[in-house]
């Protein structure tokens, strides 16, 4: 197993290298000079620009800068932001918990809603319940999350005052506080996923429920819930798992919107602001960290497969194809 | 969890005089966009305690639907609420909800499926698949259930059963998997075992092993067994009775010996003749049955086999033959049974005409298709 | 597809001489025989399919399915004929009459924050939204689909490297790419379409690859090779027709996703440049008026909902018809 | 505005703005205690003067941690705040400032003339973002421990105005030397009413009451125990946060949100502190780029636009009036003559002017006679600005100008406006027409010199417009403090601008701080001298001196 | 059993296909591999049908495909009319395709669901540009009629409109369109019902007679194989155990495995009585096959020698060969009988 993990991790390196190089090129080709933004309109002059560029190291040629950055990045040092003068690593580490928690809570929420919905609408496929679920999920798919987020704020915090409208309570403020502040944004973030996961699970579940082993389980006289959740769910959850892993990438983009509306100090907003202020090193650092997380998450998904499906574990699936 | 709470209707006390299983005029139809598919269309038979019956028929003749109807395992939504009764120890199972059926499934009746790979759950360990019904129905502790599972695996001839309990289905060979499904079916000591083509997915040598195992277990535990297959050869010496199905109906039913001795229905005869035999020399021309079974959604009036039958007479086309019987226990649906004067006469008439009443040329029927 | 079923009552049609001619199996031109052939095939081949709702779903969905198709047709029609429809200029600003509610005089669905006619903007917006989604999906299908197909057929090192590139695209935050590209070439329809299309390539590659993997194992592909068919011929004649449908069915559903995605981009100010109407930008603009004129955001949202719903339902039906599992996206 | 306290409107006339007069007056005596959360539009990249690029929201924080040496009064004059006094020499080339005794920074270090001089050195470093503003200051000398002399390269009668913002906010050198520039930027130490406590970027910044504030005895606060500043970028959720009680005050520059807040305030759930100053939206034209280098085209474009409707688009009708010059009606520098001269809404006139240009064989864009005019209009992708651009586009299209709209992100927008030092002239800018924002409460000399100073030296001259009239009058402004003379000079500049329209006005911008009703004295604060302060119009608006606010019912 | 050797290869002029010492291995990663076919040899004379039987997974299909060079065998030689195929590449190999064709077990998956029957059957002609003056069309029609389908109506349909039996007919028509010399049938009737199976078996016989085919017929059902074959080869776990003329092999199965297979054939005769369970256990994994004789783990006659020494193919009758140290009907023969000495006469 350790060897498998090692091998897999090795293949990730080129992917990460490519991502970082791509970001570097892309950002450096962007029009605009960070020096100008650092200085602000009042103080720009040829000399001051040159001074700032020298201070930021922007006067070195691109490949040199990239390699220097890469070398530092390997030691965990992602440089210092041009604009906010923060250590990029520190800035990201400050924000990462927020975004991670947001994504985890939103995935958990989405799964917690989608699994029972998907399972029961598959079990009662064609019923009124199923139709209602179908309608709702498509509705969620079509609802832009910024509108959904505002509706949530309007109803759940302004009208009924159940959750704070904006802001983040770190875990240090207590778990309850933390979770209440994370709930609305996570919910807003999970709309699409609730729908996608439910649809996906429903389809796979219908297929699984047609399989003989389910009939066999029934013919053993097991209760329905047991058949659904202990027998049918696991073999039906592979595409769900894959998509959940891939959604991590999509979620990151969605966090930009959610973090803006709910005023959360997350990585999405950091990235967005950094792009908008041409904070190249910050963007570069964030992209790298995001890529690493994405790759890691999908790596974990791969491992989960082997957990969920013993056939993959032994590699025996291929011999008796 | 306590299982008793989930058994709202304990099985009625068995009626000692009633046969183990009595199927009376069972119909299972499916309402599909294509039309009403009459998958099982008036099937009746009786199975005594400890006896076995083989149900034989081509693909699509309704064998699986019949066996699942008996088990009450068909999805309720698909099947049209159909007429007929399935009396298990005198009690009709058909009206029971699946909640009520749960007390039958396992301890009273159990099932073995065609493909052991798909009928075992690939992600659940063998042990749990066996013990869960034990724990559900017999309220055994985990240890007791495990011990019982080991005993069961031993009885179906699996070496090193303790180790196997901790393995997954894919780690077993096909034959072993099928033995496991048999062990699962036998777990709660059912009175009735339904085996739906239990060997079709297996190798010839393993097939023989499994069939022997089934026959042995059935005899040892004196269970009733319904053995479904498409191969007459498979059931030839393993069941007491045989019922031949064609297009949703039983066209001939007799004790195994009687059936092979004096087959009455032309379909049974044709089926028998199209099987290649090892005894015959190479390149023996086979008597194939031309044509195909009718569409169950658009059945012809009259005898369902008539278009492919050598004996077909005009009345075969208009009237579906009822069950005839010329010796006790031997029933068939044919106006012109094989081996009778009527049959011989019909055959001769058709041969003279060169074609049957259904319009099929005799040439084709006797010489088999090309 | 939803043939009315009045044969529910078991009345068998009288049929004599069903087997005409020399061979029972021969497909005769007679209508009944043809029907029988078809039906018979199903009994002969179809394994027991106890999908309970399968039969009913199709019939039950009939109305909804047609409604969805109708709605899509309406949207497409409106987009195409927007120029000739008797609706006001979508960009004609009438600030005095801004945020007029639906059913106002001259404005069936009211006006937006600049007093522009919402109905007209919806019709013209359908154009942009459809062009973006159709073109982005087309880019995804053509590039991603081809890639997935080729890779799924040849496997080996090619597959490993292409899938690594796909991983790079997946791991790269799309937002960065989008912002960068917009900064380069501006918010042209083309740029946005290309970026969305590019970002969706991995999905189609995966779908096409999964389908190809399944198809290439089919013996007809082997048979074509054994006939002496060249690789390109096999790819395009044998594999593509079988891969294109699942990919297209997926694309149909993805159309809806792209329409919604465009809305999110509009929120971030990254969609097509103003004043061109898109549904997404209409909703984003309406967000500002949620409290006093909710219809500005609501109407395009509902239109988007209906369209996405229709695309998904139609896609679902088509997909179930081609029997491709949603798995392995 | 409906919920105002009414009363002494008349007496306040001549104050900052009409809207401000409706602002609630503090009731009762100041009370100590309580903490509040203030929602801001955004935050700054840091809090060290010269390094932080603060905008209106950031000044809420800066004025809490730092004290400005000088502060503007409600009348628009400049008076010492942290400084005790400031006096020029005759020709305004040297200013001598006396500091208060006994003022210490939060870290305990004393505020001395030496510190001011060192501060200035840092602020004048080339990488400082106020280096440009301080370019004319050749140096600061500590004459004695509490006296500083600023020497200027050229006369500037309005020099004190410079010291109201970051160039005039003393920061602790001890802290600077200990933490370095970046450290001091993240953990600021000033002399202000509140002590910096903690900053979580993009999340919140907390300050606590300065127990040894020099101004406490002068009635300058602080009353609150703690303030949390939170950046909430989304306009809608910022307002909702106040409504849901998550925050106690919020700030906005968006007219439609102000209107929404007014509706909510009518139910009594909110107190509004609005301010209408010189801050206004406009469009700037690059007068070095054809066809906008021709004044006829600029005039035509101005005639083509109906400001009333633009204000309606922004949701500012009834809140923000039309604008014709750099100074609002309430400003002493407002000129009736300029208002008259500013091109009114007259599409026919616009068409006629355009036609002249189009038919001019010498037309500057070099296109053949008769071919229509095309321009590009750039603006940020903010929803309300997007609507505004579209309105511009509609007006200009009406008179036959082909306008293409570009949405440009904030960073590029500013960069394009500045341009690069490599062009000829330097900082020519990379745009045709931009949506923009101009006008501040600052002294006219500073404002106008920035906007229309010599092109080659002044990157802030985005329009690249200069004229002899302006050069002359700027000279006048630099060398006199006499209000009448200065007004005259400003008027002459205004007339020149109204004729040549290097920028056209979109409408005044009202700003708002909305608070819980219990929060007192948000806009009614005072200077040490007892003079009334400029209220929420501090900096460019939407800014308050939180040190002087208190909670009415604080437990 | 399960031995190697080439003693059964015949030296005749009319040999069309010779397979010698064919080995196919599939890598599993980490140095492990599936020994799917391990040294199989046989030959086919013109007009002859060789039946290949054996349990599932013993390498029958792999053998068939390796002959077709998909995938290329790991080692060994395949000669078609004396021409070595294993060395051919690209176009050279492609040019030999028309001479050899294959029919697969699953008729449905052998037909592209998106194409019309006419195109499927005519595909070979269009690949090889044999469509001169509509020759292709008439050839396709001829073949469709030959396999019992009405070209008029069937030609324009797609595969899903046909039953399994009909699909298999289409496959047969397709394989014959290029006039191949050799036809490899990989379990063409295993997926079909007994009644349809008979139709197809008869059809294959007819086609063979009509087009002068040489056939390799793969199946696991001994009765089916006997019906159609002239000679039969029995395979076990990648090796050949017994080869001989159908009649002699069935009458006197010499190899214990052949014996067991025959005993396992279900006989539609209640009087025949249940045959004793012939074999214990399951087929070992082809990943690490047993040493020596591969059948020894299940063989009732296995001795210690079988684990050590791999039996070679040796004659036990006229044209009848077996690879076993202790053959059934040759118990009297010395176990180490010298190859070439016919003990059964
Ligand atoms: N749920 C269902 N809905 C509609 N038709 C069905 C359904 N289940 C079975 N059928 C049809 O009923 C008929 C009988 O099917 P069944 O599976 O019982 O045949 P079988 O004899 O078991 O065949 P096989 O040997 O292939 O298993 C077939 O025509 C089948 O298509
Ligand atoms: N592509 C492959 N990769 C790995 N192993 C393979 C591959 N193809 C076949 N095998 C293995 O090779 C062995 C022989 O397979 P083959 O398909 O030839 O058997 P068969 O005799 O045709 O069986 P069946 O009767 O089931 O068709 C099996 O163990 C199979 O799992
Ligand atoms: Mg069946
Ligand atoms: Mg095979």
From TrEMBL, chain A:
Domain ABC transmembrane type-1: start-end pairs: 96-305
Record field: transmembrane: 9-27, 102-123, 135-158, 178-201, 238-262, 282-308
Topology of this chain in the membrane: Multi-pass membrane protein
Pfam families hit by this protein: BPD_transp_1 (PF00528), BPD_transp_1_N (PF19300)
UniProt keyword list: Cell membrane, Membrane, Transmembrane, Transmembrane helix, Transport
Annotated GO CC locations: plasma membrane
Example GO molecular function: dipeptide transmembrane transporter activity
Localisation: Cell membrane
InterPro entries assigned to the protein according to its UniProt record, in alphabetical order: BPD_transp_1_N, MetI-like, MetI-like_sf
PANTHER family per record: DIPEPTIDE TRANSPORT SYSTEM PERMEASE PROTEIN DPPB-RELATED
Family: Belongs to the binding-protein-dependent transport system permease family.
Name the UniProt record assigns to this protein: Putative peptide transport system permease
Organism listed in the record: Blastococcus saxobsidens (strain DD2)
Automatic annotation (TrEMBL), chain B:
This protein's name: Oligopeptide transport protein (ABC superfamily, ATP-binding protein)
Keywords: ATP-binding, Cell membrane, Hydrolase, Membrane, Nucleotide-binding, Transport
Taxonomic path: Bacteria, Bacillati, Actinomycetota, Actinomycetes, Geodermatophilales
Domain of life: Bacteria
SUPFAM superfamilies: P-loop containing nucleoside triphosphate hydrolases
Pfam families: ABC_tran, oligo_HPY
NCBIfam families cross-referenced by the UniProt entry: oligo_HPY (TIGR01727)
Class in the EC hierarchy, top level: hydrolase
Main location group: membrane
Gene: oppD2
An annotated GO BP: peptide transport
Organism name: Blastococcus saxobsidens (strain DD2)
Automatic annotation (TrEMBL), chain C:
GO biological processes: transmembrane transport
Keywords: Cell membrane, Membrane, Transmembrane, Transmembrane helix, Transport
Pfam families: BPD_transp_1
Segments forming domain ABC transmembrane type-1: 126-315
Keyword Transport: yes
UniProt-annotated location(s): Cell membrane
Region: Disordered, residue numbers: 30-58
PANTHER family reported in the protein's UniProt record: OLIGOPEPTIDE TRANSPORT SYSTEM PERMEASE PROTEIN APPC, PEPTIDE ABC TRANSPORTER PERMEASE PROTEIN
Nucleus is among the record's keywords: no
Domain of life of the native organism: Bacteria
Family: Belongs to the binding-protein-dependent transport system permease family.
Topology of this chain in the membrane: Multi-pass membrane protein
InterPro entries in alphabetical order: BP-dependent_transpt_permease (IPR050366), MetI-like (IPR000515), MetI-like_sf (IPR035906)
Transmembrane segments: 63-85, 130-154, 161-183, 189-208, 243-261, 293-315
Source organism (scientific name): Blastococcus saxobsidens (strain DD2)
GO CC annotations on file: plasma membrane
Protein name: Dipeptide transporter membrane component of ABC superfamily
UniProtKB/TrEMBL annotation, chain E:
InterPro entries for this protein: AAA+_ATPase, ABC_transp_ATP-bind, ABC_transporter-like_ATP-bd, ABC_transporter-like_CS, Oligopep_ABC_C, P-loop_NTPase
Stored Pfam families: ABC_tran, oligo_HPY
CDD domains with a match to the protein in the record: ABC_NikE_OppD_transporters
Molecular-function GO term, any one: ATP binding
Boundaries of every ABC transporter domain copy: 17-262
UniProt KW keywords: ATP-binding, Nucleotide-binding, Transport
Superkingdom per UniProt: Bacteria
Region spans: Disordered: 268-287
UniProt GO BP: peptide transport; transmembrane transport
Recorded family membership: Belongs to the ABC transporter superfamily.
UniProt cross-references to PANTHER family, sorted A to Z: D,D-DIPEPTIDE TRANSPORT ATP-BINDING PROTEIN DDPF-RELATED (PTHR43776:SF7), TRANSPORT ATP-BINDING PROTEIN (PTHR43776)
Protein name, UniProt field: ABC transporter protein, ATP-binding protein putative oligopeptide/dipeptide ABC transporter, ABC transporter
Organism: Blastococcus saxobsidens (strain DD2)
Lineage: Bacteria, Bacillati, Actinomycetota, Actinomycetes, Geodermatophilales
